């Protein structure tokens, strides 16, 4: 098997570089055909690496970067000015083919801008979407777009649905994944202009298994495998999920602590409760893939630990082994062919009239 | 004090007419200056009424309606064809001044259309928004718009903020309520086109206490008192709140039931836990007001019981006692004056150049 080279931003994440180094070492021990490239402050990375032994050092490379893009920095300015940052250097390696994928738990804005500008889009892709893997009651769901394109167009959403389907089918191994569009009611005539215009495109698309609208209330229950929306709505969905869970947890904890019975009962029930809720821990499921680029870019959660980074690395390996980009390219070409055909038919119809 | 007349749709809600009749009787016992008008099937209403005694029968009127608008009916068609339905008749009573407010737990779509078409807008109001009262960790928040205007314009959102502020200040009794706009980041330059264009309008508006953007994750924690957004996003927020809470509850329950320790601990802790989470029960807080109309229209939750209906009736009484519509009218007139002044200044500036 061909050796895959994965570039990892060792400066990204709340626990960088420790989490990144730990994740890389873990993945190298697990996989033979993998080379890791750690980007960031060489001294800091090497002092973290010194804590580990027994890993294949020959398959780990450290590339020193003298700059760092901070979380709060305006993304466009950061990408264009910090040429020696881990994000810019990692993206350039993907562009040049020196790395097959780039993972970063750093600034989402910089990753989105860098993906478009430095890595570049696959031919035929209108806009690359960020897809988030959401844990639900029934397993994993891909919410796409959750960060990249806030004022989206119907044709973009159609491509998100197609790319998302390919990803879920091949990486999450769900056959004929159910694709739904986020809406405010189940009926076809409901929704805002974007949804109303996108709905018929999705319905006509034979390449996907479109099941119609999904209301937000059915998302946590696992009502679809690929959930298509614009990035503004996608962000609201993700953040409400997170915020509601956190608030319920805090209020419940306070309630239990307010009485002796609550404290006793809570202590007894804690273990089985935690076990059942662990399914919702998003760290177990890797990062958010930025799809439609010439190489894979994965945004890992800011709070990632070593295990989460290792999962994101596995995700990249799966992405390449299943040739997702080859499949996306094929689909986009078929779609372009289909659009041309439609135009030809319209022209012919026009001249016949 | 003047007697207020409140029309109540006795055919709306999952438990109609029982919940509506119970709520009306309860409110009549509590308030002297109140007259209730129950609209719906006379026989069904009277057979429910027969279960109660000791209430002021002279202040309760039953108006028979031979038709009923179903939940799934297309709203515009329903409103125009079912002239003898409780929703159409109740709205007309408000329009003619025969009732001061109308409450219904029926079809949201029909209530929104009926409000605009049958009751009509206050002068100066561009679009009437539906405001939902959301229970949060810190108390109540008004989410406005959560159902009426999906493709909104910046000037509409500005009015939603102003009307929402007046409502929250007078009905929820929160002084100088904190107004925030739903956004995908805290910075002013973030957001989609609608948010970017609305932000400066809100910032300039001296009539409200604008605190900037709110991210969805901070909504359940109670980060603002009036949360402004378009109806598509508002619906996503409300439904994600509901869906996430339901899913966590189901998964936690299953987790507890899966082990003996879980069952024992859960049973012991149930009472204090339920007590602390009761703050989130939306039924305690009345219905969703449709603001900016010539009379008040309140959409009660479909699952309302008698207590929830009684709370919605109290809400209407408060609305009138605080003269919310007088205050909204005043604000809209001041705003129109301000816009005129701005135009005059621009013209003068133009001719001076």
Describe this structure in a few short sentences.
The structure is a homodimer of 353-residue chains. With 353 residues, chain A is an alpha/beta fold. Helix content of chain A is 48%, strand content 16%.
Query: Largest interface, by Cβ-Cβ below 8 angstroms: which chains and how many residues each?
Result: A-B, 62 and 62 residues
Give start-end ranges of low-pLDDT stretches of chain A.
none
Ends apart, CA distance between termini of chain A? 58 Å
- What is the residue-averaged pLDDT of chain A? 91
Q: What general form of chain A does the structure show?
A: globular
- What is the CA-based Rg of chain A, rounded? 22 Å
β-strand amount of chain A: 15-25%
**Oligomer type:** homodimer
Q: How would you write the strand order of the largest sheet of chain A?
A: 3-2-1-4-11-10
Find the count of extended strands of chain A (DSSP E, 2+ residues). Answer: 11
**Could you state the order of secondary-structure elements of chain A as H and E?**
EHEHEHHEHEEHEHEEHHEEHH
Biggest β-sheet strands, sense, barrel of chain A:
6 strands, mixed
Helix tally of chain A? 11
The share of residues in helices of chain A is: 40-55%
Task: State the secondary-structure class of chain A.
Answer: alpha/beta
């Amino acid at each position: 098997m061909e050796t895959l080279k994965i570039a990892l931003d060792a400066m990204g994440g709340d626990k960088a570089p420790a989490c990144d180094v730990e994740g890389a070492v873990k993945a190298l021990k697990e996989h033979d055909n993998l080379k890791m490239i750690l980007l960031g402050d060489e001294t800091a990375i090497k002092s973290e690496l010194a804590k580990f032994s027994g890993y294949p050092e020959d398959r780990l490379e450290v590339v020193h970067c003298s700059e760092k893009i901070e979380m709060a920095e305006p993304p466009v300015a950061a990408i264009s000015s910090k040429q020696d940052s881990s994000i810019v250097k990692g993206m350039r390696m993907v562009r040049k083919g020196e790395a097959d994928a780039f993972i970063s738990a750093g600034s989402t804005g910089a990753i989105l801008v860098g993906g478009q500008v430095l890595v570049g889009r696959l031919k035929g892709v209108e806009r690359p979407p960020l897809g988030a893997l959401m844990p639900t009651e029934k397993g994993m769901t891909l919410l796409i777009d959750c960060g990249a394109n806030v004022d989206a167009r119907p044709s973009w959403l159609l491509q998100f649905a197609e790319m998302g389907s390919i990803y879920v089918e091949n990486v999450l191994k769900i056959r004929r994944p159910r694709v739904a569009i986020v809406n405010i009611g189940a009926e076809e005539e409901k929704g805002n202009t974007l949804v109303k215009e996108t709905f018929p495109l999705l319905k006509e698309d034979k390449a996907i298994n479109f099941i119609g609208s999904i209301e937000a209330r059915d998302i946590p229950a696992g009502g679809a495998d690929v959930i298509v929306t614009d990035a503004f709505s996608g962000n609201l969905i993700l953040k409400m999920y997170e915020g509601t869970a956190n608030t319920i947890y805090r209020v419940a904890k306070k309630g239990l602590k307010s009485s002796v019975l609550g404290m006793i009962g809570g202590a007894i029930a804690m273990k089985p409760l935690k076990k059942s809720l662990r399914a919702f821990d998003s760290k177990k499921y890797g990062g958010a893939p930025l799809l439609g680029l010439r190489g894979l870019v994965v945004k890992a959660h800011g709070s990632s630990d070593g295990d989460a980074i290792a999962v994101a690395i596995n995700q990249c390996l799966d992405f390449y082994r299943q040739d997702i980009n080859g499949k996306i390219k094929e689909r986009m070409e078929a779609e372009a062919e289909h659009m041309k055909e439609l135009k030809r038919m319209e022209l012919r119809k026009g001249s016949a009239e």
